[in-house]
Design goal:
Elements (H helix, E strand, L loop, with lengths): L1 H5 L4 H13 L1 H15 L4 H5 L8 H7 L5 H12 L14 E4 L10 E4 L1 H21 L6 E4 L7 E2 L5 E4 H6 L2 H9 L8 H4 L4 H14 L4 E8 H24 L9 H8 L6 H13 L6 H5 L5 E5 L8 H8 L4 E3 L2 E3 L2 E5 L12 E3 L5 E6 L14 E2 L8 E7 L7 E13 L2 E9 L13 H16 L5 E9 L6 E8 L5 H14 L3 H8 L7 E5 L3 H11 L18 H9 L1 E6 L5
Parallel strand pairs: 1-5, 3-6, 6-7, 7-8, 18-19
Antiparallel strand pairs: 1-2, 4-5, 9-10, 10-11, 11-16, 12-13, 12-14, 14-15, 15-16, 17-18, 19-20
Helix pairs in contact: 2-7, 11-12, 12-14, 12-16, 17-18, 20-21
Bound molecules: adenosine monophosphate (AMP).
Adenosine monophosphate (AMP) binds next to strand 9, strand 15 and strand 16.
C-alpha cells in the first residue's frame, strides 16, 4: 500500500478496485469484521462480551450489544486519562478526536488511529476517481477553507483534536491532495493558525493571488464556503489593497502567518485592479466565484443534510460553476463515497465502502410508535430500497455496534453495496406531545416560509429552533436571521406558514386540539449566527466541522442566551385558529 501511495494513484485502478469490492460486498463485510475482531481480540471490551475469539457475524451480533456514545463514554475517558491496558482496541489508542458537538451541544471524545486516516484517504481517492471522470482537472491548486484545530493533550497525555485536524496534519493527506492535483493554495501556517478569522482572510488572499491556478473551491461542509464568501463581501477592498501594495493588512497579527504570507504576497497592481473591477461589475455578488477564479471546475464540500439550507446562497455565489457534494462520514469514521458526482447536491447518494468498517442498519419502520421496540439491525447487503435506517458502525478504532444517530434512506445499490441518502440526525427535535418532527421537517417548513421572503428580495441567513415548555402547552420557537427588514405582515405570514408547513401527523393533530401551542417566530439581530459560530470556535470547534444546531436544548444554555439576547421582533402563529 505504501509503495502504491509513493507513486501516486491511478484513478482508473481505484475505480476497478471499488467495483470489485462492491460486487462482493457481503463477503467483504464478513472479512472486514473478521479483521477488526482479530486485530482487537485482546481488547477487554470484546472479552467481556464473551466472543472467545469468534469472528463470525452471528456470534458478533448475539454477544456484543448495540451501544451509544454515552455507553462507551466511561471507557473512552479511561483511555484519555492514560489507562495502558487494552480497553477497546488491541493496540493502544494514542489520539483522541473531538466531534463537533454542534448538534447536541456537547463535544464527544472518540478514539482515533492510523487506520481511520487511511480510510479517509480511501474515501477521498474513491470519490475523486469518479469525480475526475466527469469533471477532469489539470494541474493546479485548490482554495480549501480548511482549519486545523488546536491540539491539546488529555489528562493521560494523548493528543486530542478534531478528526479533520488529525487528518490534515498527516503526511498521507498532503500526498493524496497532491496526487489529486489539488494541493491547498494556502501555507500550513494559515491552515493551522490560532485565529480562524485571520486564517480565513489569508485563505481568501491566497486564493486571489493564485486565482488563475485555482481548479477547485472546497471545504468539509458547504456552510464554511458560504461563510467565507460572505466574509469576502466585507473585506474585498482590503484584500485588493494588500495585493496592490504587497503589504499584508494589520488585521493579521499572528507572526507565523505574517512570515508565511510575506513569501507569497508581492505587489501586483494589475491583479488588484482586475479583481476590483470584477467585484464592482457584479450585481449583488451573483457569480462571484466564477468571476474571481477563471479556471475553477467545481465547488466541492458536503452539501447534504443540515447543509442544504446554504445551497441557495452557494449557487448564487457560484454562478455557472457546478456544485459537487462530498462524501458521508463522521468523527467515528467514514461510511460512503459520492460516486455519482453529476447528481445535484440535493439528490446526492453515498455508496458504502464495504472494507472500511462493518455496517449494520436499524430499520426505522419497526421502531414502534415511541421507538420502544427492541431494534433489530440488518446487514449492509440486506437493506431494502426505499426504507429508512439508523446507521450502526463497527470500526478499526474501538467502536463496536455503535449507533451513530444518523438516519439514512436506501435509494439503490451500487453493485451489491447500498447507496444511501442522508436524511437527518435522529431525535434532534424533542416531542412536546405525540409529535415526531425531524430536523428535515423543520428545514422544509423554513424553506416554504422563506419563499414569502424571496418575494421581498430577502433571504433567511440562518435559522434554528427551541422547544419552549415554560408555558402549558409547550410550543416551538423558530429563530430567524434575515438579510434585511420585512414588514410585520410579511413576518406574520411567514410565522403562520412555518407552523402549517410541518407535515408530521402528530404535530398537526396536536396543534388542532391545542395540545401544542402556537408556533412563535423570533427575528434576530444581524450577526447573531456569527456570534453563535464564534461561541463554538471558542470552545475549540473548527469551521470545518461546524454544523448549526437546528434545535437548541436547555443544556445548550449559552447558545440559548445568545439567541434570546438578540431577538428584535416576535410573532405568534394564528395558523390553527
Ligand atoms: P462530526 O460528529 O462533527 O464528525 O460530524 C459528523 C456528522 O455530520 C454525521 O454523523 C452526520 O450527521 C453529518 N454528516 C457527515 N457527512 C454528511 C453528509 N455527507 N451529509 C449530511 N450530513 C453529514
Amino acid at each position: 500500500m505504501l509503495e502504491k501511495m509513493e507513486k501516486g494513484f491511478d484513478p482508473e485502478e481505484v475505480i476497478e478496485e471499488f467495483e470489485a469490492l462492491t460486487k462482493d460486498a457481503k463477503r467483504v463485510q464478513v472479512e472486514t469484521l473478521k479483521r477488526i475482531l482479530k486485530e482487537n481480540s485482546e481488547a477487554e471490551y470484546l472479552k467481556k462480551w464473551g466472543l472467545d475469539g469468534k469472528t463470525d457475524t452471528e456470534s458478533y451480533s448475539t454477544c456484543v450489544p448495540l451501544v451509544t456514545h454515552k455507553d462507551l463514554e466511561p471507557l473512552i475517558q479511561q483511555i484519555a486519562d492514560g489507562a495502558t491496558h487494552p480497553i477497546l482496541t488491541g493496540k493502544p489508542i494514542t489520539t483522541i478526536t473531538l466531534s463537533s458537538g454542534t448538534t447536541e451541544g456537547k463535544r464527544k471524545f472518540v478514539p482515533f488511529n492510523d487506520e481511520l486516516t487511511e480510510t479517509t484517504m480511501q474515501i477521498y481517492r474513491t470519490s475523486f476517481a469518479y469525480r475526475n471522470r466527469e469533471f477532469p482537472i489539470g494541474n493546479g491548486k485548490a482554495l480549501s477553507f480548511i482549519y486545523g484545530s488546536k491540539q491539546f493533550k488529555t489528562k493521560g497525555g494523548l493528543l486530542a483534536g478534531t478528526a479533520t485536524s488529525n487528518v490534515y496534519r498527516s503526511a498521507q493527506f498532503k500526498k493524496t491532495m497532491k496526487d489529486m492535483q489539488t494541493p491547498c493554495c494556502s501555507p500550513d501556517e494559515v491552515i493551522f493558525g490560532p485565529d480562524f478569522h485571520q486564517s480565513l482572510y489569508c485563505h481568501l488572499l491566497c486564493g486571489l493571488i493564485f486565482r488563475d491556478e485555482i481548479q477547485v473551491i472546497s471545504s468539509t461542509f458547504a456552510h464554511s464556503i458560504v461563510h467565507s464568501f460572505r466574509s469576502f463581501e466585507l473585506v474585498w477592498e482590503e484584500l485588493c489593497s494588500d495585493i496592490k501594495t504587497g503589504t499584508l493588512s494589520t488585521r493579521i497579527t499572528v507572526p507565523t502567518i505574517r512570515t508565511a504570507m510575506a513569501k507569497i504576497l508581492k505587489p501586483n497592481a494589475e491583479l488588484a485592479y482586475k479583481i476590483h473591477e470584477k467585484c464592482l461589475s457584479l450585481s449583488n455578488w451573483y457569480g462571484l466565484i466564477e468571476e474571481l477564479f477563471p479556471s475553477v471546475k467545481y465547488i466541492y464540500g458536503i452539501m447534504t443534510g443540515s447543509m442544504e439550507p446554504y445551497l441557495k446562497k452557494l449557487r448564487h455565489y457560484a454562478g455557472g460553476i457546478p456544485l459537487l457534494s462530498a462524501d458521508y462520514g463522521s468523527s467515528e469514521g467514514w461510511i460512503g463515497a459520492n460516486v455519482n458526482p453529476t447528481r445535484p447536491p440535493e439528490m446526492a447518494t453515498f455508496a458504502v465502502l464495504p472494507h472500511i468498517g462493518y455496517f449494520e442498519f436499524i430499520p426505522l419502520r419497526d421502531a414502534g410508535p415511541l421507538g420502544r421496540i427492541e431494534p433489530r439491525p440488518v446487514g449492509l447487503t440486506d437493506v431494502h430500497v426505499g426504507e429508512e435506517y439508523e446507521v450502526v458502525v463497527t470500526n478499526f478504532a474501538g467502536l463496536y455496534r455503535y449507533r451513530l444517530g444518523d438516519v439514512v434512506k436506501v435509494v439503490g445499490f451500487h453493485n451489491s453495496t447500498p447507496e444511501l441518502q442522508f436524511i437527518c440526525r435522529k431525535d434532534i427535535m424533542p416531542a412536546i406531545n405525540i409529535d415526531k418532527n425531524t430536523e428535515k421537517d423543520l428545514q422544509l417548513s423554513v424553506e416554504a416560509a422563506a419563499k414569502l421572503l424571496a418575494a421581498e428580495k430577502l433571504e433567511v441567513v440562518d435559522f434554528t429552533s427551541q422547544v419552549d415548555l415554560s408555558s402549558d402547552p409547550g410550543h416551538y420557537v423558530i429563530f430567524w436571521e434575515v438579510s434585511g427588514n420585512a414588514s410585520d405582515e410579511v413576518f406574520k405570514e411567514c410565522c403562520n406558514c412555518i407552523d402549517s408547513a410541518f407535515v408530521d401527523a402528530g404535530y398537526v393533530s396536536s396543534r388542532k386540539v391545542q395540545a401544542i401551542g402556537p408556533l412563535e417566530l423570533k427575528i434576530l439581530k444581524r450577526g447573531t449566527f456569527q456570534k453563535i459560530l464564534d461561541h463554538y470556535v471558542g470552545l475549540g470547534c473548527t469551521l470545518n466541522q461546524f454544523k448549526m444546531p437546528r434545535c437548541v436544548g436547555p443544556v445548550n444554555d449559552r447558545v440559548l442566551r445568545i439567541l434570546c439576547d438578540n431577538v428584535v421582533k416576535s410573532y405568534i402563529s394564528s395558523a390553527f385558529g
